[in-house]
Amino acid sequence: MPELRQDPVTGCWVIVAKERSKRPYDFIQRQSNSAQICPFEYGNESMTPPETLAFRPDGLPADSPDWIVRVVPNKFAAFTPENFEETSDGLFKSRKAYGAHEVVIHGPDHNLNLATYPVAQTVEVLKAYKMRYNFHKSQPYGKYIQIIINHGKEAGASLEHSHSQIFAMPLIPQLPKSQLEGAADYYVKTGRCVYCDMIESEIDNGTRFIDRTENFIVFVPYAAKLPFETWILPVHHRPRFEAITDSERDELADVFRQTLRRFYNGLSNPPLNMYLHTSPPGYEGVESYHWHMTIIPKLTIAAGFELGTNMWINVTIPEQAAEFLRNVMS
Amino acid sequence: MPELRQDPVTGCWVIVAKERSKRPYDFIQRQSNSAQICPFEYGNESMTPPETLAFRPDGLPADSPDWIVRVVPNKFAAFTPENFEETSDGLFKSRKAYGAHEVVIHGPDHNLNLATYPVAQTVEVLKAYKMRYNFHKSQPYGKYIQIIINHGKEAGASLEHSHSQIFAMPLIPQLPKSQLEGAADYYVKTGRCVYCDMIESEIDNGTRFIDRTENFIVFVPYAAKLPFETWILPVHHRPRFEAITDSERDELADVFRQTLRRFYNGLSNPPLNMYLHTSPPGYEGVESYHWHMTIIPKLTIAAGFELGTNMWINVTIPEQAAEFLRNVMS
Which of A256, B115, B253, B261 is the most exposed place for a label (fewest CB within 10 A)? Predict the structure, then answer.
């Protein structure tokens, strides 16, 4: 099973995913098998582990076709729900990678994705996010839950069929940890949520603004780390994604789809990544943290500089990216 | 000119490189121009900015052919040596990206690289690293200097001709900062350098060991973040790369080349990145930090999970990667 290893210098944990493991020789021939049978289509349900959630007409059995959205454990999981165990060999600490890793299949059609399905499909996907988030939150490993989308091979999708992934784990990773800490510091200094202040500034300023509805706003952040990085946030202070109401969820589905359509139409269906940051399950500083989605098309390559420094070089000016996306017919 | 923008939440700085800037429409057609004239070959010296260093036979003028190794400012610089200036607009802080960004051209032959040139060429490259490091160290912007290699298009090289890059900047980025802090904490707790302790453990343990000479050791680190991540370190405590002696440098050239040959031969000349971490110029905790080179072949794609968490999933077990590299005929 996969394990977590702690970097003896920085203290950060790395996942060594033996289940997904490639043996050294696997890399020598770097070719893809494109003619494989897709395990995410109707009739191929037995190719995945048994589903953990599916929306389908009443009366139909689990793991049968005719579902609308289907959630299954990842066959090559980075986290697995077995018991936690820490081992230490002097400098070197490891833990079993205790947690869960699931796939949310966005719909049955191999040729559609969240930019091209009708919006009703996005509503079902968000419903699945919330239900599975709440499930993992209740589990002993549920200290942090990361929902992501990898769309397109160049953005790391190993299967073409449109899907999200949910990772639930027993620790808070470096980036969300430093966001929580930074936001908490800001709150101590100002008595305000830094995301609420950013939203206010972006509305006033307007140069990085893309879209808004009553309850959601879309903009390119001031210090975007990559070209066309785009955030979707609730306009009003909302620390927890899983507390979203049904009407907010339906509104989000529409804003999320429209934003994906800006990328799809403006940048010719680019490979892209999405990740959702929200207050972790046990987190108490909810007055300072504000959930948000980040969408980043995969247009450039993070290379030696980024790997060696964790500092990003963005080759597109955020204001120009926003202007471009604002003007795309979505 | 390029600017640094501070993330209002994490405090990390991002480089917005207007000089390298791609306008939104540049991304729509994602094709490469492979038939371009190479600015790094003999006779094309005028295609680069004037050189800042070159090794060539005595008596030949600057920016003429027949050089052995040549260093020039990057034409699309991420940092430029103009005056520092900070601006602040409420939440949003920016600075000019004050510093330097240079290219070290490894040699004149378009078809060779540091794995295939004779070792004498690597000696000259390391000599250039040291001289330029010392130059930038003496400049007012020289708070941190990052030397890297991007080899191959998939590893982010925009030009095919073998080269390194040197970035000099007025601040210490997140990753080296957290390494310096982690190593200093370890020193406070144990009175020892964590890298020295790692070296001892890797020699004892042997499963991640690849190679060693009198003064250098090569191994896959315990918590390698990516497949085949490999470190080269001085065996004895050495905080500063730029303090390397001539005989250590010649020995390093040989070890570095042999290591690159393991990748070249074992993984069919993979795209790869190298970065060199060393105590920053003004850093005083030199008893706790130990310079090292990291080499990572580009075999996988960092996707939504890594972007959203800054946590890595390594799909190759470090001990298997080391065994493979140990047994390659270099």
Answer: B261
Same-domain pairing of B67 and B157: yes
ipTM: 0.95
Same domain, A71 and A135: yes
Q: Evaluate if residue A106 carries a pLDDT over 60.
A: yes
Out of A173, A196, A216, pick the residue that ends a domain.
A173
- Residues B96 and B227 both lie in one domain: no
pLDDT band per the 50, 70, 90 thresholds, residue A195: very high
Using a CB-CB cut-off of 8 Å, the residues of chain B touching A28 are 267-268
N- to C-terminal Cα distance for chain A? 43
**So which residues of A are the catalytic ones?**
163
Q: Where are the alpha helices (DSSP H) in B138-193?
A: 174-190
pLDDT value, residue B329: 79
Rounded CA-CA distance B130/B135 in Å is 9
Number of A/B CB contacts below 8 angstroms equals: 284
**Residue that finishes a domain, picked among B173, B195, B223:** B173
Classify residue A66 as left (phi > 0), alpha (psi -120 to 50) or beta: left
Range of the domain at B313: 175-327
Q: From the CA of B171, how many Å to the nearest CA of chain A? A: 11
Asked if the Cβ–Cβ distance from B309 to A176 is below 8 Å, we say yes
Residue A193 CA neighbour count, 13 Å, CB half:
19
Residue A202 belongs to domain with CATH number:
3.30.428.10
Contacts of A97 by beta carbon, 8 Å cutoff, 6+ apart? A1, A2, A3, A4, A15, A16, A17, A78, A79, A80, A169
Q: How many domains does chain A have?
A: 2
Closest to B228 (Cα-Cα) out of B257, B256, B196, B270: B270
**Do B14 and B156 have their domain in common?**
yes
- Asked if B157 is an interface residue toward chain A (Cβ–Cβ < 8 A), one would say yes
